[in-house]
Amino acid sequence: MNRPPDSSAPLSTHDLKLAYGTSVIVPQLNLSLKGGEVTSIIGPNGCGKSTLLRALARLRPVSGGDVQLYGQALHSLPSKEVARRLAILPQGPTAPEGLSVEELVWFGRHPHQGRFPVRRPQDREAVDWALAQTGMTIFARRPLEALSGGQRQRAWIAMSLAQQTEILLLDEPTTYLDLSHQLEVLQLAQRLNREQGKTVVMVLHDLNQAVRYSDEIIAMRGGEIYAQGRPDEVLTPDLLAEVFGLKAHILADPDTGRPHIIPYALTR
Amino acid sequence: MTTPLGARYTNARALGVAGVLAALTVVLAVLALGLGAVATPAAQVWAALWGGGDDLTRQLVLDLRLPRVGVSLLCGAMFAASGAMMQGVIRNPLASPDIIGVGAGAGLAATVFLLAWPAAPPGGLPWAALAGAWGGFGLVLLLSREWRGAGGLHPVRLALVGVAVAAALGAVQQLVLVRAPDGLGSALTFLTGTVYGADAGRLLSVLPWALVLLPAALLLSRTLDVLNLGEDLATGLGTRVGPARLLSLGVGVALAGAAVTGAGILGFVGLLAPHLARLLVGAKHGRMLPVSMLLGALLVLAADTLGRALLPPLEVPAGIFTTLVGAPYFLYLLKRTA
Amino acid sequence: MNPRFLFLCGLTALSSAFGLSVKHERGSLELKGPAKRVVALEYSFVDTLLALGVTPVGAALGSQGGDRGAPPYLRALSAKIPATGSRAQPSLEIMLSLRPDLILADAFVQGEIYPQLAKLAPTAAFQSRRGSLDDLNAQTLAIGQLVGREAAARQLLADQQALMRKAKVFSKKAAPAFVAAVVTPKSFTVHSNQSFVGSFLEALGRKNALGPKGDQTQYEVSLEGLVALNPQTLVLFAAPDETPITQEWKKNPLWQKLSAVQRGRVYVFDRDDWTRGRGPLALKLMVAQAIESRLLQDAAPSAAFRGQ
Hints:
The complex is a heterotrimer of chains A (268), B (338) and C (308).
Chain A: E1 11-20, E2 23-32, E3 38-42, H1 49-56, E4 64-69, E5 72-73, H2 79-85, E6 86-89, H3 101-106, H4 121-133, H5 149-162, E7 167-171, H6 179-196, E8 199-203, H7 207-213, E9 216-221, E10 224-229, H8 231-234, H9 237-244, E11 246-252, E12 259-266
Helix pairs in contact in A: 4-5, 5-6
Chain B: H1 11-34, H2 42-49, H3 55-90, H4 102-116, H5 124-144, H6 155-178, H7 184-187, H8 189-192, H9 200-219, H10 221-228, H11 231-236, H12 241-263, H13 269-281, H14 285-309, H15 318-337
Helix pairs in contact in B: 1-3, 1-14, 2-3, 3-9, 3-10, 3-12, 3-13, 3-14, 4-5, 4-6, 5-6, 5-12, 9-12, 13-14, 14-15
Chain C: H1 3-18, E1 20-24, E2 27-31, E3 38-40, H2 43-51, E4 58-59, H3 72-78, H4 92-97, E5 102-106, H5 114-120, E6 123-126, H6 133-146, H7 150-170, E7 178-183, E8 188-191, H8 196-203, E9 218-220, H9 223-229, E10 233-238, H10 245-249, H11 253-257, H12 259-263, E11 266-270, H13 271-275, H14 280-292
Parallel strand pairs in C: 3-4, 3-5, 5-6, 7-10, 10-11
Antiparallel strand pairs in C: 1-2, 7-8, 8-9
Helix pairs in contact in C: 2-6, 6-7, 7-14
């Protein structure tokens, strides 16, 4: 199946196949992401959602088909150019000991700099802006180890922001954070989308958080897209049963009117 | 618990540390020029440095000690830089030139060279060791490369294969040595790591390597920093991880290989110096690499000076001292990481 | 003043007038006159120089690493010679300060530092460590030429020949072949008829049971291997300060079955004197001990050569 490249979609995949050796994770996937929206990929463990996100960010090789960035094959673009248009924050990033927040954020300028680390005024501005956006300006000189989990995650996001890309991919950005820090990170993602017009794609575990902070939901099962659309269209009792094996009450969130899921039993 | 509010490791601090180390190195170098099996009064040494002094002192200081000090400094710095780069690429604090097949390859090549070609012209041994260093590294690379898929260079696999290859090459060397005639053992003192016999010629053969490779290492420091964030983040920041690792490793092996031609296999310098540097100025390579080079230079110079001055006229190979300090530290690191 | 001495003086004068040229392993050495201040970096060179009546100004007599210092017979003779450190890494500084006009080096052990040595003083390299009896005799002559005592060297060699001829008379005709081995706490290394001591004992008229194995003139043998050889005579070279591996083997019934043990023909010599000296003085001592031990006669060893 060959479709013409979709140059309006920030990211799209065409008959994408992802495999580890002989075990196929994603057999054949066609996807088109909407620009300027927050999209969350949900699904049970092992459904291939993180694998897909990593493939969208060229962090893993594809076994067939391709990923396109505004209609251009991702693998044909220079990696540095991709890094100027698409930032990814992988799961559980680690930094060498003793690095300060500001030093970490400077790494975000790497794709914009040449062989010699010349710090131009626009680099400085980008770093300051990223620190300000994430509320990390006052922590700029602190070593990463001295920060709380939420602050540290914000520092990493600041690094990704310093890349000044249109697209921001976050792989399970709330894992290992307590609830208030989880909301902090998700609100930041939403604000970046609303105020800066960034396209944000996240892999999330918490369904209610996904619903609340996303414009678009992609539900995956067994390496395939089960459903894609607005949260209230996608999150139906049928989907919860089919994809997650859950029986749940779905109420309307009094705040947002969006669905709120209260699981009460397993289907099997 | 108090959390530090400011950065622990700053450029200012690194500059301070580097300044102190550079001063220490100069002091020790001057001291080293005055120490040796033959006593030379300070005034005579000073005069010799400015072209005066008596004949013997001039020869002692300028022909014998000065090249030795120079070779010690350069080889120490190169071993340290090599270790720092390998630790950065492999992201393992235990990585060092020894672990990547370089030491074992050089050792085996030197042994076989001496046995197979006893009438070889002098000065051939270091070059055999250099070839062996690259051969050992090539073998490790060949065995640890994933030919399928992305053809990545996986750090853990690299380290494991490195250990296995080093053990295998070491065993072959033992096998060869068992059959070796009397005298080979002493000819192989070179392998313990020693600056003994370094003259102006040796200094001049090491110098070009150092002048090219040490700045190259510094130029790669940002690449090493990015690699140090891990494969995913490095890729995300637009680095082509495979080629970047290969380039950094290549420079690292070239550094170790060149250092081997100057001073044999100086054990543990490549492990010790980067570690101390990291403790002093943090893990950022822009600060850590220069400090680690200075520490390596200082370490080897101290070891060689001690070796010359401790039990004259006996020469204690510098490698014995660096190993004496390095081995316990290595065990401590192993225990801490385990 | 005897006439031979006058002749010798005349010869010395002759060679000084014309300068001298001696071939060695790294080419040939041109000296304007005979060397007076000599540094010797191998025990055989010290032995040869002393035998020629020249006291070296420095020698590698250190006992570092694998070096065990001068062999016992040479110890008193060399006590006053300044040490220049180990044989593998002799101190270049000390050598420089001794202002030598000749350095005698081993072509193998000091092969790598030959250029550095040659910068300090004219340096001749000889195969001492790996040399056979013939090689070492040739070196005696070459060293004699370098220090302007060629006649004395020729005399030494002639005396040695005569002595060995005399010793040969003691050798029992048709005595069974021997196995000679250096024993250390860890190894039993047989010396074939191509090795230095192995060929020396053959020159005295006893037959060596073993030839070289491939290109190896000396090689290790286990107790089982020794039992398979079952020599009628066993010649061991051990150091008095070590417990050789044969002490352990003696507890084994296999050892007791050896013909040499049952015949009581196990001779023990000092391994440093026999394998490390390798000069005219050492050879004189070795001939004397070969007779004194009653090895040549194939008689039971005298008390001093029975070992522990």
